[in-house]
Amino acid sequence: MLDYNLENRGEASLYEYVYQQIRDDIVAGRIAAGEHLPSKRAFASHLGISVITIENAYSQLLAEGYICSKPRRGYYACELPDAPVLASAAEGIDRDDASVGPSAHDVNGQVERFDALSPSALEAARLWQSALRATLTSEDEREIFSTAPAQGTARLRRAIAHHLRGTRGMNVDPDNIVIGAGAQLLDTMLVQLLGADKVYAVEDPGYLRLTRIYQAMGCEVRHIPLDGEGVDLSALQKTGADVLHLMPSHQYPTGLVTSIARRYALLSWAAEQPDRYLIEDDFDCEFRLAGKPIPALASIDAAQSVIYTNTFSKSLSSALRLAYMVLPDELMERFRRNLGFYASSVSSVDQVALARLLESGDYERHVNRVRVRAREARDGLAALVRKAFPAGEVSIEYADAGLYCAVVLTKDNAGESFAKALADARISYIDIDDCLWASDRALTKNAPSRVLIQYDDLSLHSLIVLQEQLQ
To answer: Mind listing the pLDDT tens digit for each residue in 42-63?
Structure first.
């Protein structure tokens, strides 16, 4: 029986401490691959805590891929590939201190589909207006009207580094952060850093605009299918790719979370050859609606092969074009040497305003309010689906992974009726097959349809109309 001294948990909650101890034991090999974990009831009794505490710890380990569940047999430790990884730095991550900056993903790379002024967007607009007013009236004019250096202002880079330490378990040097006007600009700068002669791999289905950006820069692009654990490693190895662009914490559009075993394997792949990199787009990561945030891939990267990217465009507004990347030391030196001549693409006023939001905690409070609304929308949608389709003809996948979920529709009357009800209720959705690269769409011809629904599009009124349409 596993035995942990709960008096050593410090400020961590009981479930977080149990989760951390089991995770560390699996990583260190003290819990062997395939080893059967204690039943929830027996483990709870042994530690003298509630069953729900053990259930929450196991759920987090299951979500991250450290353990697997076998029907009627219990939980077992998963095998983790050897990889150049750091010890996890995720201790002390507080769910209430998390923040978000999802990339501006759309369906076909041409139209922003999720930019309607929802309650969250209206709140973000007011928050930004207030931050700008405070910046213009109270900050030193020499700071807000001076020309920012190529990397961005030191104040904002320090604020982002502090933010990443608290929310993503990443110990980041502010000098390795580069601020840019949106994820697309940073993607093009990365091609200039890494080279257009490299082969770039992207997830499929995925963000189609990303393919077009790389192609426009003269790069060869390979599309890598996904399996149940993330990017298909065997398919990746066959492509000859030098760079893999992926969303491990909440993949767009499927919602898939890359397992810890696959993360280790990808880090090993990157470390096999020099100048091979993983670009981590941490899309939607901190909006996990159950349990702790999934740790960033960059937080366990010991070989400095992960380029971390994120953006504030969706948590505030895509019109602001506020994004950033964290470069490994070697690439940071290359940036200063080859791209340091650039003027900053984001105004000093906007950078100081964003720094104020991060420093004051106003940004995190805004994100927490958005998360509460997302949970309410998730619960409302799940209840409607269970009631209208008790036989499971329509089901929801990855409902807790972030601000959207995937809804699986059988190719029969039930699936068609749900899709029609969504349209009649004016609830936007995206057919995930439309996010496949064109040559791959025939592969899903006979598979159940899956659609992406964003929680911010599920107002109370729209859910009521949807319920009426399903009756």
So the answer is: 898 889 899 999 998 998 898 8
In tens, the pLDDT along 99-138 reads 323 333 333 443 334 444 567 778 888 898 999 999 999 8
Residue type, 312: F
Q: Is 43 helix (H, G, I), strand (E, B) or coil?
A: helix
Buried b (16+ CB within 10 A) or exposed e, 110-149: eeebbeeebebbeebeebbeebeebbeeebeeebbeeebe
pTM value is 0.80
Give CA–CA dist 300/234, Å, rounded: 22
Contact 252, 283 (CB under 8 A): yes
CA angle 281, 166, 397 (to 5 degrees): 50
Nearby residues of 221 by Cβ (< 8 Å), 6 or more positions away: 199, 200, 201, 202, 211, 214, 215
Quote the tokens at residue 394: 């329509």
Q: Decide if pLDDT at 291 tops 80.
A: no
Tokens of 91: 């201790």
DSSP 240: T
- What mean pLDDT is predicted for residues 391-410? 89
